[in-house]
Design a protein that fits this description.
The chain has 570 residues and is an alpha/beta fold. It has three domains: 6-85, Arginyl tRNA synthetase N-terminal domain (Gyrase A, domain 2, 2-Layer Sandwich), CATH 3.30.1360; 109-256 and 303-360, HUPs (Rossmann fold, 3-Layer(aba) Sandwich), CATH 3.40.50.620; 375-561, Isoleucyl-tRNA Synthetase, Domain 1. Helix content is 52%, strand content 10%. The chain is built from 20 helices and 14 strands. The strands form four sheets. Strands 7-6-5-11-12 form a five-stranded parallel sheet, with helices on both faces. A four-stranded antiparallel sheet has the order 1-2-4-3. Strand 5 (113-117), helix 5 (132-147) and strand 6 (151-156) form a beta-alpha-beta unit. Helix 16 (442-459) packs antiparallel against helix 20 (538-561). 45% of the residues are buried. The model has no long low-confidence stretch (mean pLDDT 95).
């Protein structure tokens, strides 16, 4: 494991110094059983380089490690060196770092920029619930990379161009719409027009002609399109505000229309004609990538090439992520192959971040099918469910606090339900399960944070990092307290791994584990007053409150990484 905390670094350097190797070449991991120690370092690589027996090398190195600082002892177990940590010293660094939010290493992303394309709904359609996974996964990744020190460019690549826009404009021209026009009326026009095409295929050609007029820049058509775009964005922004999402760049496909001629000219040596359309053949692909249709209009792929070039020249990204459902895997595979074939040296930095479907009631919803479920409606239902649950468990909670907390926890419940599952798997959303205040849910973690805050309020103390030096942390002697500490030590690696794999699920799973360890420790006092956080012994009470403060801060950090609030009361 890379050394993302000073604790792991000290352990690695203690071995590396004696072995004559670089600390970064040593993997630091947890032993298979807690009684063996807190950290383990394998010696097989060292032994191979020295031509010695790994077990003998481990024994010799362990005997040379002098206890001190965070290292309490080192012993050999086969080819491994098992290290026990000095609990008080480890607690001192760990709780201080947790409290002032420096557990996550910002050096990982220093001087690196990452572009994240996510959410990206189509205008003239609602921001529907089936957009939830791209929106929440992308936002969480943006939070994770920012926490690691990256410069993040969160991009909303609006679907505001193409034949779909031609359909809406054609429908509006054919049937009109009652004022004031909103997204619902625009969506109804789209669905109605698609249904009409089934009976009259000529309408499909009519929609393409309207898009051609739009692409040709006819002022009247552009004005109608701009109005529909503005109406759509106003509704989208309401939902994004509720989620706490603010994009660094909102740039639709239309922004790249002026670049189409240049893109096609640059790709001209690669382009061939197929049935009147302009395509590029790609190695290993049964079908070519289509860049321009027979009727002269450009396509999503053409605009994606222009967007990729713009992002590179503007941001010089270390990685460029496209958080789009797995149904678009072929498109992105072909797009990246095209970028590479065109000679763009940055093509390998582009990555598709695919995810599974989200279903409600066992079925997939869609705007095209006319059975859309609005994201804001799901948020509202979740808020109502959470409000009732909070009232059940805390009937005396002030009404103003409930009014403030219920929307945050309701939305958090929906967000967590879409992040706790590995992104490549499908999600079956169940409102009752998602809004539960216990079990594997977002509200359970938020409740755990609120419980920490409640303990601190009851104790009438605030513990800052500066206070940690004055706390007698030798009082934290119980194994349950140490289990919490070891879980806190895992957070840096969890976050780095989430970034490496573009997988927020790991953070969600970690928070559930932390909540479990905290609950096991905290509830031990139910049967033994001496084990309570607010025990009679003042130094012990203060040490335990320091641990509570560290856990509370870790919950707040983790929830923020997922794009969720950390309410102090529930």
């Amino acid at each position: 494991m890379p050394h993302y905390t000073p604790v792991h670094r000290v352990a690695a350097e203690a071995v590396a110094t004696r072995a004559g190797v670089a600390a970064d070449d040593l993997a630091v991991q947890a032993p298979p059983r807690p009684e063996m120690g807190d950290l383990a370092i394998g010696c097989c690589g060292i032994a191979k380089a020295q031509g010695k027996n790994p077990a003998q090398v481990a024994k010799e190195l362990a005997e040379g490690i002098v206890p001190g600082g965070v290292i309490a002892s080192a012993t050999a177990a086969g080819p491994f060196i098992n290290i026990k940590l000095d609990r008080a010293e480890t607690f001192r660094w760990l709780l201080g770092a947790a409290i002032d939010s420096t557990l996550i290493p910002t050096s990982v992303g220093a001087d690196k920029t990452i572009c994240i394309d996510y959410s990206s709904p189509n205008i003239a359609k609602h921001l529907a619930y089936h957009h939830i996974r791209s929106t929440t996964i992308g936002h969480s990744l943006a939070q994770i990379f920012r926490a690691l020190g990256y410069t993040v460019v969160g991009i909303n690549f609006l679907g505001d161009w193409g034949t779909t826009q031609g359909m809406v404009i054609a429908a509006f021209n054919l049937w009109g719409a009652e004022e004031p026009i909103d997204v619902t009326k625009l969506t109804d026009l789209y669905v109605k027009y698609r249904d009409a095409i089934k009976a009259n295929p000529e309408l499909d050609r009519e929609a393409r002609l309207w898009f051609k007029r739009l692409e040709d820049g006819e002022p009247e058509v552009r004005a109608v399109w701009q109005r529909f775009r503005d109406i759509s964005w106003a509704e989208f922004e309401e939902v994004y505000d509720a989620l706490g999402i603010h994009f660094d760049e909102v740039r639709g496909e239309s922004a790249y229309d002026p670049d189409m001629h240049g893109v096609l000219e640059e790709l001209r040596p690669l382009i061939t004609e197929s049935e009147g359309a302009q395509v590029v053949e790609l190695e290993g692909e049964k079908t070519p990538i289509l860049l321009k249709t027979q009727d002269g209009t450009t396509l999503y792929a053409t605009r994606d090439v222009a967007a990729a070039k713009y992002r590179w020249t503007t941001y010089h990204f270390a990685r460029s992520l496209y958080v789009v459902d797995r149904g678009q895997a072929l498109h992105f595979r072909q797009l990246f192959k095209l970028l590479k074939k065109a000679g763009y040296e940055w093509a390998d930095r582009c990555e598709h971040v695919p995810f599974g479907l989200v279903r409600m009631g066992g079925r997939k919803t869609s705007t095209r099918g006319g059975d859309v479920v609005l994201m804001k409606d799901v948020f509202h239902e979740a808020e109502l469910a959470v409000r009732a649950r909070i009232r059940d468990v805390n009937p005396d909670l002030d009404a103003a606090i409930v009014d403030d907390v219920a929307p945050k926890v309701g939305i958090g419940a929906v967000v967590f339900a879409n992040l706790q599952t590995q992104r490549d798997k499908d999600v079956d959303f169940e409102l009752e399960k998602a809004t539960s205040l216990d079990g594997d849910s977002g509200p359970y973690i938020q409740m755990s944070h609120a419980r920490c805050a409640s303990i601190m309020r009851k104790a009438k103390v605030t513990i800052t990092r500066a206070d940690i030096d004055d706390v007698d942390l030798t009082k934290l002697t119980h194994d349950a307290e140490w289990a919490v500490a070891k879980k806190l030590l895992e957070l840096p690696e969890i976050v780095v791994r989430a970034a490496d794999n573009s997988e927020p699920h790991g953070v969600a799973h970690y928070l559930l584990q932390l909540a479990g360890e905290f609950s096991r420790w905290y509830t031990q006092g139910n049967g033994d007053p001496s084990l309570r956080v607010l025990c009679e012994d003042a130094p012990t009470r203060r040490a335990r409150l320091a641990l509570v403060a560290g856990v509370q801060a870790a919950f707040a950090t983790g929830l923020a990484l997922l794009g969720m609030h950390a309410p102090p009361q529930m």
